[in-house]
Amino acid sequence: MRFQFFFQEAIVSDQFTISQLAKSAGIRTSTVRYYERIGLVEPEERSRGNYRLYSDASLDRLKFIRAAQATGFTLDDVKALLLDDAGGTPTCGSVRGLIEDRLADTERRLKDLRHVRRILKSALQQCEQQKKSDCCHVVAGLHRD
Fold it and tell me: Coiled coil: which residue ranges (predicted)?
């Protein structure tokens, strides 16, 4: 009975328990706990039963974190995107270097992926020219490296 009241309290007051928050953000509760440990998100309150309670602002923050990660930013980057060195909202000038670094990293990864793509296409062409029963030169080459 007490457990049921807790959930009604959280829903009525526009607050989320950790599991409700995680579900709304599309992540696992362990991820929310991890983000809390490293200071990316924190509960706004505690319930009478000492459960963590989060607001819509926490949900928005989690969505921002996930979007930033999908764009290639690390969690350390996300911290910098959320707060500047003085604890305020970062300016374009303060995050420009971070964005440039991520862009350069993305360009390097794209170059590497293009190289892998060329190798795989070449390997596929060679496989198409060989008999199915012949030893695959791609596999043989990987064993040598």
Answer: 103-130
